[in-house]
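A student in our group prepared the protein record below, which I am reviewing. This is what I was given:
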Amino acid sequence: AGKLHTLLAPTNDAFTEYFTASSTSLEALLDREDLEDFVKYHILPGKVTSEFLESADDTTMHNTLHAWGTLTATQPGGVLTLGGVPVDTPDVIAGNGLVHKLGGVLTPPAPTQPPAATMNLVEKAADLGLTSLVAAVEAAGLKATFEGSDKYTIFAPSNAAFAAAVTALGEDSLDTLLARADLGEILKHHVLNGELPSSALESGTAYTTLQGSSVMFNSGTPSTVDIAEVSTPDLFATNGVIHAVSEVLLPNSIEGVLALSPDLSTILEVVRRAGGLVTELDWRNAGKLHTLLAPTNDAFTEYFTASSTSLEALLDREDLEDFVKYHILPGKVTSEFLESADDTTMHNTLHAWGTLTATQPGGVLTLGGVPVDTPDVIAGNGLVHKLGGVLTPPAPTQPPAATMNLVEKAADLGLTSLVAAVEAAGLKATFEGSDKYTIFAPSNAAFAAAVTALGEDSLDTLLARADLGEILKHHVLNGELPSSALESGTAYTTLQGSSVMFNSGTPSTVDIAEVSTPDLFATNGVIHAVSEVLLPNSIEGVLALSPDLSTILEVVRRAGGLVTELDWRNAGKLHTL
């Protein structure tokens, strides 16, 4: 299968001396149960020249095909030796490697076992000083996974590798890298299911990662995983093994998937012409996840014929960027999710006013009436669904002219709890005025759930809380921001002063709340209906997020019921700590 090897070949004279010295024979050797291991100890993976061996440090351990056997190369008296055996004739060239003729026979080492592991994978990584990896695992919410009982193999990038990735991914610092939405995808691309020590990894084999893409392992001196060198293999933990590597590995981005797919060359050319959208689909997009609905080349050919147009005409369209945006869903939207959704569900695209419905006529998944030929092509920063047709963006639409202010609109929508809260907090005049606002409006059910969450007896007691105004202002942004103006992955400062994180998707979210109905316009702003009452960090929460305040947090938590005074269970009192 195209592998290169270097055979360390004892000469006949070397074997004769070996049989005499060990009081054995060729026949006895050929009958040995460990004959395969004996031979493997005489094979180096890859094409390893004598020049390379002579240039290596004499402490370097060179892997053989033997499960636990390594060799050192030394030069006593200027003579190259391997495992203490002289190389009589080096670099005999073969088509699939090299042969070094040896003046002796190598003796494989006795079986060894790694010392019993006492730490799980996360603890082991911390013990190895892989602080960036540990921080990334925690930031991506994978800590519990790698502390559990299931076994994994982790190709673990060094701290220097993470520092290089900050620059490669266009980030400002490790902190911004760890805040990326695609961090989990990147980390999972370094992980295989099961415990695979280096002896179990087959050279030239592509292994599927937890992320779904694959990495190519090649044994050698050193071994490699894709572009990364394995600096230290076989660092065992109680629930798997770590192989330290020199690079952060990136699976193919959506743009990379297109570039490697001959049947998607047309959509790749279209995307690359559409302004900055190619950046949205590669690794320079600040970590956003997207799903590209990619018409195949055949689909474009049919489209050009049916519409009496051409690729050149499409590339020259003024609205080319909108055309492409209509083929992109925010987030990683699987075919399983689309198939499970109600066929009346409107799936947002990046297009300012374009949505799509997913249906299954005859059991075939379609989006906007176009069949999905090949779903769920995995990319590192999302998915690609190959389409059997081209989607046509809708003509521009304008929302109907608003006739009600924000308070009237909320009442018209049946948001009775919100309206009552606005009145109780003395904010009615604010949201009836001429200044424009964006309100993330909790449903009545969300207020009912908040009654319990905040330890209140009823909606009336919740509306009597002194902090009600703070809670409501945390749902409000200055200015009118329709959903098309809200940028995914962006933290917006509220009237209360804290921030909320907006992420577009199906559905879009604001912090923990799902946006059930966006773009409900009023004369003085816009309402986005949401599923939860949003709470900013309490005083206790601020302490918990402030490393320089950990001591006062510990003191407060020890001081009887005072911690309750500083969280949301304090019946709405406001305090200054």
Notes: DSSP finds 26 helices and 30 strands in the chain.
